[in-house]
Design a protein that fits this description.
By secondary structure, the chain is α/β, with parallel strands linked by helices. The chain has 3 domains: 286 residues, Metallo-beta-lactamase, Chain A; 153 residues, Rossmann fold; 114 residues, Roll (Ubiquitin-like (UB roll)), CATH 3.10.20.580. It has an 8-stranded mixed sheet. A 6-stranded mixed sheet has the order 8-9-10-11-12-19, covered by helices on one side.
Length: 579
């Protein structure tokens, strides 16, 4: 059933019509997907994702696209359309929505997952949400959008066919051509073919698996793998770690658990809430009699239990990681447990995941994570499927999206193999502008501000490179604080104090600290006798202390001098602190 939502529409002279495709994230990387389609003074945004940081960004929670261009053009934005509920397509919304406050469009499950996320991050924020279904056609300003069903590793995914005054644009979202999906909802080949028959000016297609030969296996093979594993570990308690949003995987675990007469307990707030949402909306079918509370697991023997939790990416506060550290109040792991990691490792998370696996083994568990066990199936199309999509749609122009640069290059080569001219294929970077006009071929020219915004706790912004450098140095070598109090003439007014955190000091530490106190006091004496100069004193102390540390124990600790100047009016008060 089609639904129509009408927004403002302005008429322009044909010679001045302009359609631009602008990626703000998702090109040359895995994650933070965000794409703009702009026709004259109207903008629709496709997806708003995040990316997880690597080891080069210590302390950073996640990364979202820089939306400076959208903020500058806030009044032009007609809609944000979300293709599916994965974090790399929705995770930026708590940061983006309050700044843009644009109408949000998505399918039932996708919007439900977003509501759960916003309830945690922005409990008082009420976004303008519009639910759509695959097959719907709506008009938003100058854009007529058809939503097309696609199979992926989460239910309710859609692709977009967007008719504009200058031509039709198809954005596939994440997809694969799974003929036997868990929920029976296949990619709608017919709809893509219909759009191809109408004529597609531009295709933007998922490149993640462009390097993989052949076809991506069906999600259903996981059921066979799980059945084998349940038989192999019949006497053990089974702990399963998966993405909280992977409803298909949870459904398969539930089906196998039912066959083996095991109860299921869910652990982790996001897991519990997403399961409740998926059950309420009919995307997840689990008999209520199978589900028990995590506090009740002591009532059941090991061979009667399955625990499903988060933590497949080694997230520090997830259920699996707290179990691996022996810090989870609900579950204590041991030799009676086997852990299945039912997810592939997101690039950048390898170290976190490996550390978690090692701690699980140290707890005495058996851990199943090897790729050859077929415990994970990708949700993205491989090379032959990508060529089928290209043949179904037969676009005039093509832009590979969603993938590292090597994936995009390989996808462009696949496009050439099926007959698309190299001059009609555009390899773009985040921020590039690809512009279409009525009487001229498209051109890639110009650039808008793009890049990454780092979200650190409750703060979001572009953290300067020196801040990240300081974090890495502190993480690697620790910090030493040297506190010095002087009077207004620069004379020492209190004993020097030295504190360390994370600094390696060998056994002869007493001698080293004697020398550190001495060089600090000497620095004060050298600058005493005239008006106190805290900046000069701080620099001198820093240099002298560093010299001692590197000479005595090769330490490169961060040295933090703190200089306080005693007030003239009150002998007990210090006027300023300089860091």
């Amino acid at each position: 059933m089609a639904r129509n939502n009408f927004h403002r529409h302005r008429n322009f002279e044909p010679d001045h019509e302009r359609l631009s495709f602008i990626p703000l994230g998702g090109l040359g990387e895995i994650g933070k997907n965000m794409y703009i389609l702009e026709y004259n003074d109207e903008i629709i945004v496709i997806d708003s994702g995040l990316k997880f940081p690597d080891s080069e960004l210590p302390g950073v929670d996640y990364i979202v696209p820089d939306i400076s261009y959208l903020e500058a053009n806030r009044d032009k934005i007609l809609a944000i359309i979300i293709t599916h509920g994965h974090e790399d397509h929705t995770g930026g919304l708590p940061y983006v929505l309050p700044r843009l406050n644009a109408p949000l469009y998505g399918t039932q499950l996708t919007l439900g997952l977003i509501r759960n996320k916003l309830q945690d991050d922005l409990p008082m924020f009420r976004p303008d949400m519009h639910e759509i279904r695959a097959g719907d056609v709506i008009k938003i300003g100058s854009f007529t959008i058809r939503f097309i069903a696609v199979a992926h590793s989460i239910p309710d995914c859609i692709a977009l066919s967007i008719e504009t005054p200058l031509g039709r644009v198809v954005h596939t979202g994440d997809f694969k051509l799974d003929s036997t999906p868990v929920d029976g909802r296949v990619t709608d080949y017919g709809a893509f073919a219909e759009e191809g028959d109408k004529g597609i000016m531009l295709l933007c297609s998922d490149s993640t698996n462009a390097e993989r030969k052949g076809f991506t296996p069906s999600e259903r093979i996981i059921s066979g793998t799980l059945d084998t594993l349940f038989r192999t570990y019949r006497t053990k308690r089974i702990i399963i770690s998966s993405f909280a949003s992977n409803v298909h995987r949870i459904q398969q675990v539930a089906d196998v658990s039912a066959r083996f007469n095991r109860k299921i307990a869910f652990l982790g707030r996001s897991m519990i809430r997403n399961v409740e949402l998926a059950r309420d909306t009919g995307y997840l079918k689990i008999d209520s009699k199978m589900i028990i509370q995590i506090e009740e697991i002591w009532k059941y023997s090991d061979n009667q239990l399955v625990v499903i939790t988060t933590g497949s990416q080694g997230e520090p506060f997830s259920g699996l990681v707290t179990m691996s550290r022996g810090e989870n109040k609900a579950i204590e792991l041991g030799e009676h447990d086997v852990v299945f990691l039912l997810a592939s490792v997101i690039p950048g998370n390898e170290k976190l995941v490996n550390n978690t696996i090692n701690r699980l083994f140290a707890q005495g568990c058996e851990v199943v994570y090897e790729k050859d066990r077929q415990i994970h199936v990708s949700g993205h199309a491989s090379s032959e499927e990508l060529k089928i999509m290209l043949n179904l749609t037969r676009p005039q122009y093509f832009v590979p999206v969603h993938g590292e640069y090597k994936h995009m290059v390989r996808h462009s080569q696949l496009a050439q193999e099926v007959g698309i001219s190299p001059r009609n294929i555009f390899l773009m970077s985040n921020g590039d502008i690809l512009t279409f006009t009525r009487n001229n071929p498209p051109k890639k020219h110009g650039h808008v501000q793009s890049g990454a915004v780092i979200v650190d706790g409750n703060a979001a912004g572009s953290i300067k490179s020196e801040v990240l450098k300081e974090r890495r140095e502190i993480a690697e070598d620790g910090v030493m604080a040297v506190a010095v109090a002087v009077d207004d003439r620069g004379n020492l007014a209190a004993p020097v104090a030295i504190e360390t955190q994370g600094v390696f000091i060998p056994e002869d530490s007493r001698d080293i600290f004697k020398e550190l106190y001495a060089v600090s006091e000497q620095a004060v004496q050298e600058l005493a006798g005239r008006r106190a100069n805290p900046d000069a004193l701080r620099r001198t102390i820093k240099t002298r202390v560093r010299d001692v540390l590197r000479k005595r124990n090769s330490s490169f600790a961060v040295v933090l001098p703190i200089v306080s100047v005693k007030s003239r009016d009150n002998n007990n008060v210090f006027e300023k602190e300089f860091f």
